[in-house]
Protein 1
Amino acid sequence: MIDLLKIEYAKVKNYSTFWVILAIYAVLVPLTYLGSSQLHLPFYPTADELFSFPTIWGFLTWTASLWNVLLGVLIVMSICNDISFKTQRQSIIDGQSRKQYILGKFYFFVVFAIIVTLYTFLMGLIIGGINSGFSDAASGIEYVGFYLIQTIGYFALAFFFAVLIRKSALTIVLFSVIIVFDIFLSPIFGLFMGDYYGEMLSQFIPTLTISHLTPFPFFQEMISYGKQMNPNQPEVYEMNEYLRLAVASMYVLAMVFVGYLSLKRRDL
């Protein structure tokens, strides 16, 4: 595992675009979070609540997830560069099996996701600790774990598209459009299947399952408010967070496996 990770790190350590995009992500997350304290919306917390435990965990992971598309672009570039520059072929020629190549990529984006999650966790710990102390730091911390799986899910999706399409620019566009505009998938399902079944079944779309691991905080309160305004509206089945975590994990494994089969059968 360590040797495979060293190989993957060697591919990106001198790749300036990788580090520039990573730095942009590292700056955008705290700036977006600090800027969000100026919003005044129904059910939205005050600035003091936003920067305190336990509220910070749900909001910070949701804010960080908005910029995961940038991290997914890095995964796309890593895969497509290997294909374009024949790095994958050279690795196989040098004795690395296709299974080892896939495992190396998988290990890389899992470790990458862990590093990004630790960054988010430390940011929340510092901001929350400064503003409210650490007595409630453990409350709501499960959102950090959900964010980790979500990030791995986005990486797996980026890997899946990159392996199938094999063209960097086209893959980045497709991946970005699907991630950014997946909020329209539920209405589209509702248009063809009716609001009730459309909203229920759309929860199982891979991108929505993954993105909803860190939902907009107080989303449930907004739903409850909507029910009070329209009590005759039928109640739609809503996956609980742990079922969503299990389904998202299965999607991750499925996308990596399909990617492996695609690489195994294609010519290098």
Protein 2
Amino acid sequence: MNPLGIALVGTGPGAVPHLRSLHDLRVMAPLRRVVTRRPEAAQLGPFHGELRPSNDFQAMLTDPQVQAVVIATPPATHLEMAQACFAHGKHVLLEKPLDVSLARAQAIVESAQRHQCQLGVVLQHRFRPAVERLQALLDAQSLGRVQAASVSVPWWRPQSYYEQAGRGTRARDGGGVLITQAIHSVDVFRALVGVRRVVAAQVSRTRLHRMETEDHVQALLELGQGAPGRLMATTAQYPGHPECIEIIGTQGTAILEGGHLRVDFVGEEPAIEIKAEGGTGGGANIMDFPHDWHRSLISEFVESVQKQRPSRTHGGEALKTHRLIDSILACAGEVADL
């Protein structure tokens, strides 16, 4: 396969694992350009001294050496940037979430389809080895029929996090803990067990944070096979703990905690256990996780462009997760102050 020339737009904290991954993948996905609002302050990590960042977005769009663009800017900027890329024939790998609203997210997906470009979304938790193994077990019905499942995201963010411009606002981020932090676990959970509908939900703003949107969510769900499901997500649980998905099946139980998986089968079949190193970004250090999952995601996205097929986390998949988050918030109604 021919190498796929990449441009990176945005050099904030979220760009760090992209830069590390692109350095690892520089043969198949050479980084051609870096675009940022403040080139003089850009931190390029492993590419320091190799590339000169620029604030010229238009020059990137017209560069024939760039075939795909990684957009790692705040959600409110995604629609216009993605549409411009598609109009110039560039494929796009977009940081989560798609955008700040379902309507704008839908417009991005439709624009990609209209211009026949690939759209991938950075939902890198799908590429954790433990998640991939659990998905394979469920696909093979090794756990039997799902009887119940839950997802818990007991994370922590200090107030200083929300004092950064736009953090936790609808205008910049599109919402609070669900769309910004828990979206990764919600996406994995939805992909693993499916969600038919939201039965009940409660959305709160705890006394630990001063912010516009929610920092604590609980929901009861009806899963894809009709079984009961439960969701809890927060950024108010100090000091932050690994997210956890538990699935009870007729033939066994799976517990996915961070990057660790344990599956115990009913009967004498030996248990399966996968252990992983590194954090999950659930505490005050939001970048406390390895870049391995990003590297796998980018590699798969590049392959999807080369083979002209949707990536595993294509826009349509991300749109399903966005719809679920919107359904939870709509069911809950107004954010309650505790």
Protein 3
Amino acid sequence: MGNIYLIFVLGGLFGLIIQYAGLNRYDVISGQSGLKDNTVIKTILMAIGVGAILLSVIIGLGWASFHVKPFVLGGVALGGLIFGSGMALLGYCPGTLPISAGEGSLDAWIGIAGGLLGGWVYTLLVPHLQWLRGPDFGKISLHSMVGDIPEVYYAVAAAIGVFFILLAVTLNKRDNTSDRKWWIAGILLAVLNAIVFLHGMANRPIGASTSYPYLADWLGGTTDNAYFDKIQKPGHWEMIFLFGAMLAAFVVAVLRKRFRLRLIHSRWEKYKGNRPGKRIFWAFAGGFILIFGARTAGGCTSGHILSGGMQLAAGSLVFTLFVFAGLVLTGKGFYRKEK
């Protein structure tokens, strides 16, 4: 049980960091899809930059190991586009859904329901989708390419890390905002992920999307298959992790008197009106698309973009580009002001 408590606490810390910077809010994530709010991308760039440097150090000291996802081209490209599209429609990602649900966002709960269905459907279809996900180039990362020359690896990892940090700072200067919560959250996310990587802690990266098909398969009784066997262990870990994040967000929201049950957020009302039925439909559909895309790619914002980016993994960085493309293309088209 001690391990379960540890996972729960780590998830709680994750929830508090995300909540602190407002990265879970619908208006922030949907705003990123329309390039109206760059909080998300700045935080991710900072987290990857700091994390790449920090992770290379603790792995070099023998305190942690790499957990690179395979570069499955079709999966990360197609899955990234689908995932980004779902993220724009929903306004949340797999890891922020339970945090916003803990704060009282009803559309986040609806998105979770859609995500569970998306995960369950993916389990049923995965035997027929393998041809679509290939080719598999293996676990390619900076370390796999230059790891035999440690001096080169550390120098390049540090240079890339600094580049990402400077890119985040430059983007913030263009935004001309005095808010500094994003870079504090980025650093804290990098530190938290590095802690999770440690052999004495979880010895794995942070992740979120695997919990959806895991829980859906368990609820739907579709556990007697190879895919569930594959995701059972990480899915269980992530479910506890996200529950910790949700509970932490709930406690803080109540203590700060910010807990509020709401379905329609200001940005949705601005572009789509205040009809509950429309928001319910798109929240559910967005959740379905989001998780189906994440499982097609084999990861999400937490497992691929953040954790994979920190490891400078080729597949994860390519996934990030396709997610951003799907996010912006969908956001620009979907959030047009309607009469």
Protein 4
Amino acid sequence: MSDGLVYLDNAATTFPKPIEVLQGMVDAYARVGVSPGRGNHDLAMQADDMVAQARARVARFFGAPDPDRVIFAANATDALNTAIGGIVRPGDHVVATRLDHNSVLRPLHHLAAAGVIAYDLAPFDGRGFVDPAAVAALIRPATRAVVMTHASNVLGTIQPLGEIGRVCADRGVLLVVDAAQSAGQVPIDMTALGVSALAFTGHKSLYGPSGIGGLVLQPAVEVETTRFGGTGMDSSSLVHTRAYPLRLEAGTLNLMGVIGLSLGIGFVEARGLGAIHDREMALTRRLRDGLAENPGIRLFCADDLADHLAVLTVDVPGMDPQDVGAILDGDFGIAVRVGLHCAPMVHRDLGTIDRGAVRFSLGVFNTPDDIDRAIAAMDAIPHPRRR
């Protein structure tokens, strides 16, 4: 994208989408754009087969044993609401973290305000990581689940899920993971990591469209239905089916989104998770090193980029992040994310809750020239600290 827009807001939504994903979605939907599971004619059965194949691909991608426990949702937020609302019971306690996105924090706050549950938040350290011992210290007899992000959307730090999974297994507690940022960036094997339930979205690093995501469950995890409606089966009964995956899928699926999600995973698999991550992190180090030379910029948790995603968040003391973002966009054609990034506790702890910060997030189509343009643009901004 070096000839035009420099898009560095991939943690929000990856852009552009691979042309093969876009074209494949359109072609498949043009052929079989009907309701899956809602008829016994050939087109409906072909659509149902596409959905089944997508479930199997998602299960393999995340190391889950049962494709029927792949639940399609609108996005990771929708999936997390399904998981949290369907797992917790009155009187339960939940542990989350101060790194978490509002897609975790708001459902927990709502349930706590209603007197249904209590919850505590584990802190993160000065490098941006949650200590498994801090999670363990908050678990109590009433704790039903630990619900947490795999990778911070503000700091880019990848949390030690394997260690936390072992803590949860030892205490008999479920581990529910928000993989919105990590899915498609780093390998995730739910079984090896001890993850009970995993929420993901398609429109970020899986390079699918918006409006599709999902919840992947281990076979032993039971999630109660919180929404009810048509499923295409047992239609004579007013009781919503208890069978997975339709137990948690009410209404007609987003078939085009499911197709795009499957194609996006195929794109990631073809390029290789390791190759994608290594290339993006090389560019992230280039960006970090360039920005670190500017005395008017403060970088957060970027001294060591081990166990990181391609995300850098910075502050320009004396300047509103909105102004920095507007200058980058209007004067230099560089798109970044500014503000609180829907993660208020992170910003409270960073001291940026009043104004937020500026986030650079890279994707598979970024180039070294994009990074150099971003560094030069930040150098060209008349930062107050340098006046």
